[in-house]
């Protein structure tokens, strides 16, 4: 497999072409290196290649991985966040992409106020309406925005969504999903007279379309690092604000299948 730096050059060229096609500046788009199930060595390679934001799906995976990694990258949680995992998550991540309810906003605000944290958040919107995906119903977005803006320890940066996975020959089917999220953002900005600069949308399969429709953060994993290794996380100590699913507190060992 090619080095990450070589792959990144190819991706950057595609992003540049998508920006030019849509009249955008290349500097408006950043890549989040999604290192789910990859080890600290992949985080290091991403950092060495110039990628400064690491995206993780699970709280417990970041908990064992971060201490083994360089201190430079910024860490974002891009996976679903359960309310009983907020406390440990605030210790690990500066931004949460997947805030999907008013209850979760209130939970983040309450613990952030208690601990002195000031995280950034994105509101996840289930634009496609797929039952398998989490996220706010579009009709509930305005109420969630109002709640976030009334939370002094939280900075609302924008929105996140996931398009349905489709084969490459049908990739244009993802465009309406990304366009809809951009339209939601524009309506919120107009209604509340605020600026929300971040749209987290586009992954390995569809990032070029996402860029054309306004994405500012691309969540890229497989296209950068190849297929993910299979891992199991064995909890050896139960501690902290943990709960079901083995997430939250505790100490975990990473075991490759």
Question: Brief overview, please?
Answer:
With 257 residues, the chain is α/β, with parallel strands linked by helices. It has helices at 4-22, 40-48, 59-65, 86-92, 102-115, 141-149, 175-192, 207-212, 222-225, and strands at residues 30-34, 53-56, 74-77, 95-99, 120-124, 155-160, 198-200, 217-220, 231-237, 251-256.
Describe the structure.
The protein has helices spanning 4-22, 40-48, 59-65, 86-92, 102-115, 141-149, 175-192, 207-212, 222-225, and strands at 30-34, 53-56, 74-77, 95-99, 120-124, 155-160, 198-200, 217-220, 231-237, 251-256. It is of the alpha/beta class and 257 residues long. It has a single domain, classed as TIM Barrel (Alpha-Beta Barrel), CATH 3.20.20.10. An eight-stranded parallel beta sheet has the order 7-6-5-4-3-2-1-8. The longest helix has 19 residues, at 4-22. Mean pLDDT is 90; it is low at 235-257.
């Amino acid at each position: 497999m090619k080095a990450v730096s070589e792959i990144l050059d190819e991706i950057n060229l595609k992003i540049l072409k998508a920006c030019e096609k849509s009249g955008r500046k290349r500097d408006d788009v950043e890549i989040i290196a999604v290192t789910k199930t990859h080890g600290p060595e992949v985080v290091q390679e991403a950092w060495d290649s110039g990628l400064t934001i690491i995206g993780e799906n699970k709280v417990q995976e970041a908990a064992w991985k971060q201490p083994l990694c360089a201190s430079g990258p910024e860490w974002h949680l891009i996976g679903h966040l359960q309310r009983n995992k907020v406390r440990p998550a605030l210790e690990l991540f500066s931004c949460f992409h997947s805030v999907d309810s008013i209850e979760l906003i209130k939970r983040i605000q309450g613990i952030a106020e208690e601990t002195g944290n000031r995280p950034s958040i994105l509101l996840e919107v289930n634009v496609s309406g797929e039952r398998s995906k989490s996220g706010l119903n579009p009709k509930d977005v305005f109420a969630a925005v109002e709640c976030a803006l009334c939370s002094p320890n939280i900075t609302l940066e924008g929105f996140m969504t996931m398009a349905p996975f489709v084969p490459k020959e049908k990739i244009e089917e993802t465009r309406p999903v990304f366009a809809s999220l951009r339209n939601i953002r524009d309506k919120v900005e107009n209604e509340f007279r605020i600026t929300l600069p971040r749209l987290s949308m586009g992954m390995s399969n569809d990032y070029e379309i996402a860029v054309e429709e306004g994405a500012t953060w691309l969540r890229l994993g497989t296209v950068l690092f190849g297929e993910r290794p299979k891992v199991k996380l064995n909890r050896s100590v139960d501690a902290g604000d943990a709960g079901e699913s083995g997430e939250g507190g505790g100490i975990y060992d990473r075991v490759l299948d």
